[in-house]
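Notes on consecutive records. When two proteins share a document, each keeps its own sequence and its own token line. Never mix them. Below: protein one.
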Amino acid sequence: MKIVILSILLLLALACSKVEEKTNTLISSVIPNRADNKSRLLDSNCVGFLKDQFDPRIIDSSFFYYDKNRNEKTGLKWFNINDKDKVINFNQYLMEDKRLIPYINEKDIEFAYTGEKILTNKVIYLADLVKAEKNEYKYLNVSSDDGIKVFCNGNLVYEVFENRTMDPIAPQDIFKVKLKKGNNVILYKVFQSLGRWEIFRNFIPDNEVRKA
């Protein structure tokens, strides 16, 4: 009898561990940016980027645990990526990750001059779970290809609406974000015109912030 009870408890523990498993970074499925597919144009027709597909405030720390409802809450598919790199190459993930490939229309795939497969006229979300030891403001350094929106705990804190290249060496966007003690969610929304599609993000100490 004791063996049966112990076996049941072990199975319950394993089941709970799977439910409680979480990741520090999530990536979404892609959505179109412009209905007319004129990827280089930046105007009010860039509704994929300019219009929020869901309320960013619904993505809290619990969102990073396995949650079968998170797709329904946002209308997008979400996937954990166990990547500690400060640079994320979206084209690479979307073309190589077997979980993401089924959500790509082959008609949207083009080839860069380097021979690399790329997507054009798309928007994607990236969410990072950030833990803070106390309530504080921290500097966030962000560089992206192309434009970007940054949300901290559901609040829009930064936005760039332009075609540009990512530069992880020279600071592109440095701004303060307000972190609360405990878990925080930094949500990035990045649009793609054509070519490379990347993001660099990193918190930097106050003494390393370049004075204007």
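Protein two starts on the next line and is unrelated to protein one.
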Amino acid sequence: MQNPKVTVSVITYNQAKYVEKALQSVLSQEVDFAYEILIGDDCSTDGTRELLKQFQQSFPDRIRLFLHEKKYQGVPGKLSIVTNLEAAKGEYIALLDGDDWWESNNKLQVQADFLDQHQDFALTFHNTSFLWEENLHPAWSYNDRYHHYGKTAGFTHQEVVAGLDINSSSMMFRLSALLPIPEWYWQVYNGDYAMALLTSRHGKVKYFEGLTCCCFKNTSSMTRVSENSLWANSIMIKQNRAFKKHFKREYAPVFQQRIADLYFKRGFILRRIGKYAAMSAAFARAAAISPTTAIHYLKKKFNNNGIKQQV
């Protein structure tokens, strides 16, 4: 294959029910440039790997496989995504999870053309429709949200820091805006947000409401870990500490407030499982970080749990 303009990075884990649709949506893209597909699999055991090998045999010049022999014990998906990014040959990176798919067959062309023509932009993303297995929750899309905000054209790094929600399977960004990947990225739970933070430092962010991908939420999803677990809470505290250290000092209060919120959540998790001494320590840590917010947060949470406040 000639040097690809775009590298499509796909990560999979036990997604045999969905991965064919995901890969077909990549292979059906209509483009006037070369692109490669890198697939990282985190030691699937449900037949996903066998399907990936079949696709690679059918498209040997386009697909490269990274079949990891042991399941990564750290943050889910991190080994696969970092391996793919470090092996990428494209100027631009498009991401896709193994249980998502692209509805628009001109997605790669539109996003790559835009980045070619607008050097002041580093990251693009587009509409995502979120669907739930067995209709556990109502479907919704980014277009619903961004039309409500009245902004669909573009965003800044400051807005990304503030918490702009960007689904990874809709992203295309300049690889040069991400590399080198910082060491702390391995410990980050919200990888989509971290990538958006890193890339948007180097340019503006473009949103395409006319392109769509589908994000299918299911029980076997790669990164589906309860945010109410102590493990996830610890990871998210660590990641916000890393963000606070890595990004501009002017954004430190944003990440500091998130750390305080996470310690509050930690306290309520510990309360639920009866670890009251650790609960008190978590609340004290949160209050030390943000005393004013502590009063509001605790009143709200205890009231929601039906506990009368004593003043």
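For the record: The CA atoms of residues 2 and 34 lie 7 Å apart.
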